[in-house]
Amino acid sequence: xxxxxxxxxxxxxxxxxxxxxxxxxxxxxxxxxxxxxxxxxxxxxxxxxxxxxxxxxxxxxxxxxxxxxxxxxxxxxxxxxxxxxxxxxxxxxxxxxxxxxxxxxxxxxxxxxxxxxxxxxxxxxxxxxxxxxxxxxxxxxxxxxxxxxxxxxxxxxxxxxxxxxxxxxxxxxxxxxxxxxxxxxxxxxxxxxxxxxxxxxxxxxxxxxxxxxxxxxxxxxxxxxxxxxxxxxxxxxxxxxxxxxxxxx
Length: 249
Known about the structure:
The protein contains nine helices and no strands. By secondary structure, it is mainly alpha-helical.
């Protein structure tokens, strides 16, 4: 319990130092562009690939489980859309990104800590937490809505592809596309985007914390990366429950 409170206090103080006005805006924007490309744009390919396959699998599995003639076939498209918009493109995708992006952030900052680069910044009077962490926070939070929108689009396209594969069976392209449009609530798109921004803050801040306070050598950097992914995933799931209750009930 004492260790948990100690870590919470360290995390809070670190975020207080990190989230402050940059001393040099030019340097901050250069770092921000680098982080957007490294953390966000480089993750685009994995988001598209996973979304296409998951959207296809969701549509196929729903069609296989609808055996009652009382259930209209457009339900397949409707359910596929709701699953992708409400949970997959925000929560599940961010859990996947926590493994890729979170470990990257923790290992990068952790390596700088064990090689004493952060200590050198502090000696020169640089706010190392602001210089290293703030561009990562802002970069991931600003680009992750783009990843979510791409995930939604490609996931639904995967479902459409599945409907063409199963043409002539329970699932037809016409009924599937009608299901995609019926009872559409635009708020669900914004709901997923808002959730993803919160998740981006969780991933970037927690991973930065574990990397910033690494003590030891290369082995501890690996442990910090693992801890960052595990803790980010737990906090994303907790935030998902809280935000779903606040925004949808």
